[in-house]
Amino acid sequence: MKRLKEQAGSILLSMIGIVVVIVLWDFIVRFTTLGRLLPAPFEVVRRLLYTLSHPIGKKYTWTMHLLVSLRRVMTGFCFSSLAGVLMGMAMGRFKAVEAVFHPLFELIRPIPSVAWIPLAIVWFGIGETAKFFIIFMAGFVNVVVNTYAGAKRVEEDMLGVAYMLGANQIQAFFRVVIPSCVPYIFAGMQVALSTCWMAVLAAEMVSSTEGIGWTITAGQEAGDMTQIFVGIIGIAVVGLLLAVLMRWIEKILCRWRVRGT
């Protein structure tokens, strides 16, 4: 009961915070000169409800644009997570791999996903592959960093005990190394999912005609601030839901070592 009360109190405070922001937003629009630049919150809500059944652009409603972006993000995220876990684990556990690839990774690590747009166009054209590549690069680095850190921090005493009890290297890897790395992997995947979702805007700037990022750039080109805010709300809400989903999956798979909320 105490935990339920704490959760209910946290949700209530969050709702109060959202209401306060909306009230301040409406006040600023109504009574300051910023009203010339910002749409009223209720105007944004009306447009959002309208675009649920009417297309933005030629063919897709707001929901379909959101699903297109989500498909792109999840595709890039899945590939970046798989590649990032393999690379981080290999660098963390094998000194030869670390010696070869760690310096190269440190060169790639500071490069923002937006900087890959010109190369993506040259390498893959202006189709879906270029968008997947940009999203992939946004998530790959975060997964590698956290997986590598987890692989380096595996307690050697635990491995020694496993070997002493008769485990071979493969058994020790799957029963000691991987379980020790799982919390780090999920930490990296959660950050990667957020960065992939943020990168979708940059990815959909590459000659796209659909997607929630495209609705924002289309609104910018048309000077339609209301449409821009509708797109921003979509990115914010789905990004929050994806983060909550990843936390829930982590809580189930890492019951013995759940990170703080």
Q: Strand share of the residues?
A: under 5%
CATH uppermost class of the largest domain: Mainly Alpha
Which series of helices and strands comes N to C? HHHHHHHHHH
Average of per-residue pLDDT values: 85
Q: What is the architecture of the largest domain at the second tier of CATH? A: Orthogonal Bundle
Distance between the termini: 19 Å
**Distinct helical segment count:** 10
Q: What is the third-level CATH name, the topology of the largest domain?
A: MetI-like fold
Radius of gyration: 22 Å
Unreliable spans are: none
CATH superfamily of the largest domain: MetI-like
Characterization of the model:
This protein is mainly alpha-helical and 261 residues long. Helices cover 78% and strands 0% of the residues. The chain is built from 10 helices and no strands. It folds into 2 domains: 1-38; 40-253, MetI-like fold (Orthogonal Bundle), CATH 1.10.3720. The two termini are 19 Å apart. The relative contact order is 0.12. The model has no long low-confidence stretch (mean pLDDT 85). α3 packs across α4 (95-108), α6 packs antiparallel against α8 and α8 packs parallel to α9.
